[in-house]
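Below is a filled-in request sheet from our internal design queue. Each sheet records the structural input a requester submitted and the sequence that came back. We keep these sheets so that new team members can see what a complete request looks like end to end.

REQUESTER: design group, bay 2
PRIORITY: normal
MODE: inverse folding
CHAIN LENGTH: 163
BACKBONE (tokenized):
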């Protein structure tokens, strides 16, 4: 018993040139995809955090100690299209703040960053804001009544329109 193979695929021969073309196409695809992913990773990187890490390290401990001495507590909540940031003093009441600003953006990209205007009610700063589900960061910058700078990065995971 012998089976007869018919069809267009059965008529061609697999030659060294065809094997080379298959190998080059396979490796070329892998290399092209890797280059695309590397380009996307670099293009979406938010950039430099500080111009000089040495100078930043010299100021870090002093600024951290001054900030910790304030004794402030910070909490962020999101729901019903409103972002609320509560800043409390060591006694649990509203902190004495001269100014406050916050940059809200994705944890992995700066493309959609916004700096909304907040309205203060006691210890709570609120702003209407539309946040899609995902991992957000709030970069809080405040100045105490005595001039002490206060910085805090607050992770804000939003799921089903709530944090």
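RETURNED SEQUENCE:
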């Amino acid at each position: 018993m012998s089976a007869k193979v018919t069809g267009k695929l059965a008529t061609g021969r697999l030659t060294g040139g065809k094997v080379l073309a298959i190998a080059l196409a396979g490796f070329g695809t892998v290399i092209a995809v890797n280059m695309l992913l590397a380009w996307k990773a670099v293009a979406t990187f938010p950039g430099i955090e500080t111009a000089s890490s040495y100078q930043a390290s010299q100021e870090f401990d002093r600024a951290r100690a001054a900030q910790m001495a304030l004794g402030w507590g910070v909490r962020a909540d999101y729901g019903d299209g409103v972002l609320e940031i509560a800043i409390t003093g060591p006694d649990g009441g509203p902190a004495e703040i001269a100014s406050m600003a916050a940059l809200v953006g994705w944890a992995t990209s700066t493309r959609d960053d916004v700096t909304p205007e907040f309205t203060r009610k006691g210890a709570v700063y609120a702003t209407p804001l539309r946040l899609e589900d995902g991992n957000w960061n709030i970069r809080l910058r405040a100045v105490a009544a005595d001039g002490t700078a206060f910085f805090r990065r607050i992770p804000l995971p939003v799921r089903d329109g709530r944090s």
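SHEET NOTES:
- Residues 81 and 131 are 7 Å apart (CA to CA).
- The two ends are 72 Å apart (CA to CA).
FILED BY: M.R.
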